[in-house]
Amino acid sequence: xxxxxxxxxxxxxxxxxxxxxxxxxASTPFESTTLGAPALDIAMAGTVQELTTTHTLGTPVxxxxxVEGPQGTFTASLGSILGDQVRQTLSTxxxxxxxxxxxxxxxxxxxxxxxxxxxxxxxIIRNDHGFLVHSQQRSHASVNNSALSRGAK
Length: 153
Description:
Layout: H1 2-19, E1 42-52, E2 63-69, E3 72-79, H2 84-89, E4 95-105, E5 108-118, E6 121-124, H3 135-152
Parallel strand pairs: 3-5
Antiparallel strand pairs: 1-2, 1-4, 2-3, 4-5, 5-6
C-alpha cells in the first residue's frame, strides 16, 4: 500500500513538472519502443575521443564515451557499472564499435549502448529489456546455481 502511495506521489509530481512551461522532463531510456527492442539497434564505429566519468545535470547517468567515426562524432552512454578493466581499454584513439538505440535527451543525441566492442572483446552493457548488466552479478549467479545443483544431487 505504501509503495502505491509513493508511486502515485512520484507520478503526480512528474505531471506537475511537465505542465510547467520551460521544464523538460527526460523520458526514461527503458521505453518498450527503444531499449526493449534489440531489433531496432544501430551499430556505430570509430575511435575514442574522450571518456567522461563525471555526471552533468541533464545527461544520462554513467559513463559518456565520445567517439569520432565515419558518421561524425557521437556520444555513447555506457551506463554506470562498466568494469575497470573495460574502462582502461577505452583510451583516446582506441577503435570501438557501439550498438544500441539513439535517443534524444534534453536536446542532445546519445547512443544508449547495449553492446560495446573494444580491443577485440564484446561487452554486453544492457540486456534485451534495456537494463544494465553487471558482469559480477552474472558470475555470482552462476556460482550460486552450481552450488545449488551440487546440493540437489
